[in-house]
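Notes, p. 3: input format for complexes.
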Amino acid sequence: MNPPAETANLAKRDESVDWTALRNEFPILRETVNGHPLVYLDNAASSQKPQQVIDTVRRYYEHDNANVHRGIHELSNRATEAYEGARQRVADYLNAGSPEEIIFTRGTTEGLNLVANTWALDNLRKGDTILLTEMEHHSNLVPWQILANRIGAKLDFIEVTDDDGQLDLQWLDEQLARARLLSLTHISNTMGTVNPVAEICTHARAAGVVTVVDAAQSAGHTTVDVQAIGCDFLAFSGHKTCGPTGIGVLYGRRELLEAMPPYQGGGEMISRVEYRDSTFNVVPHKFEAGTPNVAGAVGLHAALDYLDAIGREAIFEHDQRLAKRACERLAEIDGIRLFGPSEDRSGVVSFVLPDAHALDLATMADQKGVALRAGHHCNQPLLAKLGVAATARASFYFYNTEAEVDRFIEVLHDVRKLLV
Ligand code: PLP
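Output follows (420 residues plus pyridoxal-5'-phosphate):
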């Protein structure tokens, strides 16, 4: 079997990280857009992929591709080894107790829907309360709404403070005392707030509340340790962590996974099938119906190797440094509204200008090669609470540079001159 990733050239990097060399490992960042060098600031939506990940996926298809778990032939064995190796790598990345606690999904959304349709459907009853926060992405809101409507459960929300986009935790214990399940995001995809998930999960555990963490915005940017957080479930997406699209991860505490019913039927999730009944496979296979995304898992393995070779703390510090520079430069614009905390935030920066609609701004920035996002960011209820229909969002990653922050600000000023 070929090695999962070309990580040999990635020496362990700490303060002396060569960010320019890293950036050069992303072929897409050499693109020009509308005649300008690409400035890609839409990393909260999806990250770009380094050559090592692209090569690993290509190599898998060129040398190892087959279906997993079913064959007695060499390629099937190689594919199975690569797929299960990726599961072990994810377990190490999250500091899970064992690879059996790692389920491959299509992404964060599927992971959250899986918990809603298995553990929650099996354990929650009419009148039970599901506790969420006001800053949840639609992927961590709509599945719970569907479930609540189906079984007659209630939704409650930890509020977001208006001034700095933090969770208002003063009523946490009272809210937990009424709840059976708490599902919350680690990092807000609109405001960049970093929630104290470990502290919140400690309170939830004391109250006997099952916890689900949406790590879509954190898993590729900072350390996510499921044992230190103390959560029961945690979900993230490969495509936001330098990995391929269509692959994601759900971590679940083993004893909960073992007691849960399956999510979908078919393929490897069975143990024995008769015409009128079936018995199910052991975890995690019980939750992986049908042929899995083997190439995606192999690519994710390479991506996690890549991120760890840089160092997740170094990545987060770099994100924060760029976001701070962007916030300082944006704050110089009269009448601008910046969302989220002023300190200890992630690399996600959302804003509204007094004189230019976010969508116009992003469209015109694209004309100059700057990729921003504008809209509700799948946070419609949060934006309604904040009193806006849309924000413009710049989100940074380790391959972005200070020069790109400055270019983004320069383009913003140019665009405003045209719009006002
Ligand atoms: N949760 C958060 C906080 C997100 O930012 C996103 C995507 O932007 C998701 C969930 C959904 O991720 P995916 O579309 O990869 O399933």
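The longest strand covers residues 129-133.
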